[in-house]
Specification:
Nuclear Transport Factor 2, Chain: A, globular, disordered N terminus, single chain, alpha+beta
């Protein structure tokens, strides 16, 4: 592979679940605004419905990431890949006991992330009444 091909971002539409999982594991361990920028469509938008926020444009997202005061440690649990869609489950640990389960929906266009919707959930204690039907994870 020549240097030009090595610098070209992968076509996300062509990845299977194993490849997507490997790519995201690498990205989440590095959290590089530059590497992630290359994977975003020019019409990129990220939404966080719980806070009612939207970041439009991959340049705005890069600046947001660069300014982020305390990036989380992210543990990837699962990636599901379907045509034009990745669903990602993980755990974000911001330190100091602030841990959230995160579900990310990546909508793909032209081999890049076009829409990025993130849902965050805080852990909670399960009620005792349902213990007979559930298994602890």
């Amino acid at each position: 592979m020549n240097a030009t091909n090595e610098q070209r971002p992968p076509n996300l539409d062509e990845m299977d679940e194993k490849e997507a999982h490997r790519l995201l594991t690498e990205l989440f361990s590095n959290l590089s605004p530059e590497e992630e920028y290359a994977l975003r469509h020019e019409d990129y938008a990220m939404e966080m419905p719980q806070s009612g926020e939207r970041i439009k444009g991959r340049e705005n997202m890069r600046q947001f990431q660069e300014a982020y005061p305390n990036p989380p440690n992210i543990q990837l649990r699962r990636v599901v890949v379907r045509e034009g869609l990745w669903v990602v489950e993980g755990v974000n640990d911001y330190g100091g006991g602030q841990v959230s389960t995160v579900l990310v929906i990546f909508e793909l266009r032209d081999g890049k992330i076009w829409r990025d919707t993130r849902y965050y959930a805080q852990p909670f204690d399960a009620p005792a009444w349902r213990a007979q039907w559930v298994e602890r994870m």
